[in-house]
Structure formats: C-alpha cells, structure tokens
Design goal:
CATH class of the largest domain: Mainly Alpha
CATH topology of the largest domain: Arc Repressor Mutant, subunit A
Order of helices and strands: HEHHEEHHHHEEHH
CATH superfamily of the largest domain: Winged helix-like DNA-binding domain superfamily/Winged helix DNA-binding domain
Number of helices: 9
Number of strands: 5
Strand content: 5-15%
Structural class: mainly alpha
Number of domains: 2
Radius of gyration: 22 Å
Strand order of the largest sheet: 1-3-2
Length: 234
Amino acid sequence: MSLRHLTPIEARVLATLMEKARTVPDTYPLSLNGVVTGCNQKTSREPVMNVAEREAQEALDDLRTLGLVREAGGGRVARFEHNFQRGVGVPEQSSVLLGLLMLRGPQTAGELRINSDRWYRFADISSVEGFLDELRERSEEKGGPLVVRLPRAPGTREDRWAHLLSGPVNESAISPTSTGLGAAASATSLAERISVLEAEVSELKQMVARLYSELGVTPAPQSHATNEDHTETN
C-alpha cells in the first residue's frame, strides 16, 4: 500500500500508539492525554519532542484518514489505537522495527534487537537483518522501500538503518556528531553490542546443554589450568 509521507509529529503519534499497545496493554487504547504524554517522553525518544495537545489531535485525525489509526468507542473519553500493520501491509516483525525506528531514530540491527525486547523477541541479529532487508527491497507494487541502510559513519563499526515513512533521510542531519549524543552514544552502542554477544553466548550454552541431554552424554568437567598443581609438584 502506498501512503503519503508522514510528518514528524504524525510519525511520533503513530509510533507511540504502537509502543504502548505492546508495553502497557492495560491502559491501551490511549486517550488524547496519554498520546501526548507518550509522545513527549524524555527516554527512549530521538529526538525528544514537545507535542502540544492540539498538534496530537490533528495528527490523530490525519492518521485516521490514512487508515493508520482508529478511534476505539465505548467510553466517555475518546481513545485511539493504531492500525499500522494492516494499514501499511507488513508482518508483525517489520511493524516492530519500523515503530522503533520512528521512535528512536536510526539504529543498528543489534540496537534494534535489544530495543525490541518488550515489543517482540527476535531470535538473533540475523533475523532482524532479514526483515530489514525485506523492508529495503519492498517492491514498488507494494509501495516501495520502507527503510534505508545508512552509510557507515566515521568511527563506527556497524551500519545504521532509518525508516522512510517520513520521506528521504537527510543523512548529514542524523550523523552521530550532530545528534548531541557524542561519546556517550558510542559507549552506549558498545555496551549494547556486548549485551547482544553475551545473550548469544548464553543461547549457545543452552543449546549445547540440550544436545548433551538429548544424546545422554555427560559433559566432561572443565579442567582449570593447573598452575598450582605444577607448583605443588615442583
């Protein structure tokens, strides 16, 4: 399905609804006040915004026209829910990745896997990359690509991805040096990559243990270096 480009506020409102549907289902659908509060969070948002109630309502009205948001009835206070997956025509996993990119800005596949933990659990980074590649190679009949792989920034080791729901990406405006995150962002990215690697090592250990169990084999005890034994012998 081909859609017009979303404004930054429309993208933030839509992604906020997508996030809250998964992270706080007890208070979802959201009231207008809940939408505004979610849009203006200081954490897990890039950039941080200050969306006024009037702006959020206008965005909700326009998103309803596009078929991306629905008003949920049954109460005195109007509440809103997203219709992103059906409205755009993407599977659940792709919807999660696009929602995170709209909320948090360009991210690496590793960062997306970590940040998606409360939304959807991807098996590994390769799974994330597979869905990103599908979104990048989306045919024109379906509306064209929805993400772009950004050129690797100086001093970084991984490519970042950005969504195209708001139109072509201004790469110079989102470089690490211009986001204001500086060295702290690099440190955070490194810590997140380490966390991903640790999680994958843990998964591999569990897999090996399961194989030992299925084969009825007892793993050989690990032999700790016997420098002390050699010392005692000598």
